[in-house]
Write a structure and sequence with these properties.
Largest sheet: 9 strands, mixed
Order of helices and strands: EEEEEHEHEEE
Helix content: 10-25%
Distance between the termini: 24 Å
Oligomer: single chain
Length: 146
């Protein structure tokens, strides 16, 4: 079992917070789910700044990448239990993050008790297609299946 961080969730079940512990010290992180279409929620990971704002583009290099990714996977699983019909949209702020999500987050989620159908959207747009490890995607859609 991969190491994960303890997280807390707000009463509405759409904002999750945890602390990353690593080379740069303790970094307060947040995953926010925002409904972007009926029944579709964007999952956004960011660092919480001292002024309370969330920075979604920062790269903290805290040395705990795998722990953060597996924590995000646990958060997605928890959110899916609270909102079982929700589709979850994920996209990185750059190609490097998209590749990381494609490699690690999908692996972490595929090994979960919550079942998802994985879909990908390529850079050039078009339609969502069934996820393939050999393709590069600009966005991902997790659709719950029973």
């Amino acid at each position: 079992m991969a190491k994960t961080y303890w997280f807390k969730v707000n009463p509405a079940g759409d904002v999750y917070e945890f602390n990353s512990e690593g080379l740069q010290g303790t970094i307060h992180k947040m995953v926010r789910f925002e409904e972007i279409a009926p029944g579709v929620y964007n999952a956004a990971l960011g660092d919480v700044r001292e002024n309370g704002e969330i920075d979604f583009e920062i790269n903290t290099n805290n040395g705990d990448y795998y722990t953060v990714i597996y924590t995000v996977a646990d958060i997605i699983k928890h959110f899916s239990k609270v909102y079982p019909a929700a589709k979850i949209h994920i996209t990185g702020t750059d190609d490097r993050r998209n590749a990381a999500y494609q490699r690690r987050l999908t692996v972490a989620l595929q090994s979960s008790a919550v079942n998802f159908a994985f879909w990908g959207l390529k850079e050039d747009g078009g339609d969502w297609e069934p996820f393939s490890k050999s393709e590069n995607y600009a966005a991902f859609l997790l659709v719950p299946v029973e």
